[in-house]
Amino acid sequence: GLVTKQSKLIGLIVPTISNPFFPELCRGAEDEANAHGYSLVICNSDASAEKEEHYITILKEQQVDGLILSSRSGLSSTSLLPFLKNVHYVHLDRMEEEAVSGVRLDNEAGGYLAGKHLLELGHTKIGCISGPNEIRNSRDRVAGFTRALAEANLEPVWIQEGDFSLDSAYQHAMAKLEETDVTAIFTCNDMMACGVYRAAHGRGMAIPKELSVIGFDDVPLVSALIPKLTTIRQDTYAMGRKAAALLVQQIEEGTTDFAIFEPTLVVRESTAYVPTGGN
Ligand code: RIB
Questions:
Q1: What is the CATH code for 9-105+234-262?
Q2: Is residue 216 in contact with ligand 1, taking CB distance under 6 Å?
Q3: How many CA atoms lie within 13 Å of 232's alpha carbon, on the beta-carbon side?
Q4: How far apart are CA 203 and CA 239, in angstroms?
Q5: Nearest to 140 by CA among 107, 114, 92
Q6: Does 21 contact ligand 1 (Cβ within 6 A)?
Q7: What is the per-residue pLDDT for 106?
Q8: Is pLDDT of 276 > 60?
């Protein structure tokens, strides 16, 4: 048969390398790639469509055997299509439509778990800091969260659109903790939970005594926060591994597959029963 030379290189593009979620995802992909004799080249797009397209072009010129794409936003998973001709690829974590081949979390279920947890602690005045609305992961998390509240005939007191960065959540929380008397905040990732911690500290509010906080991701450092963060866990490392495994399968056997991971609630110290108001 035809002999095709393999480069044994896989390219992985992440949107925000400074967020500790993504290094964990990379580690999983790297370990799995290595286990199959492939090396991983990691590129950071900094949420720029131009950088993403540039990297895809460069990686294809370097004749990578395949690409793992954690696209800047869901939008790019379709707008990137012209760049993805003649190359194997899988989507990881971020995608707009259900991709042919890829790995993602059941984000709606994660948001639902977060909402349920706060309700079970008696909270009725709850705020939410979402990720960018253009990112499907964020929309799904908010949808699951509001579904949980709706089952209890409640709705969020407010939802603010953050950008997954600590600072965006800090700004929103500083303003909203001044204007409203929420007793709990759900943030759509852990970096933003850290921003709420900073704001609560700035406002002299004790977590969890006066304010409960629940995050999303379970990045390694949040169990070292004081108080330790309650969060919705993604098995990020395993998701990275799975994406690389699916890509290798596609390269070597021509098969495509899709995997959805289930989130879990990790209860630590940042959530507590709603303050009674002293009667
Ligand atoms: O913290 C970064 C977020 O963006 C994560 O929750 C991950 O799922 C990604 O889409």
A1: 3.40.50.2300
A2: yes
A3: 27
A4: 37
A5: 107
A6: yes
A7: 98
A8: yes
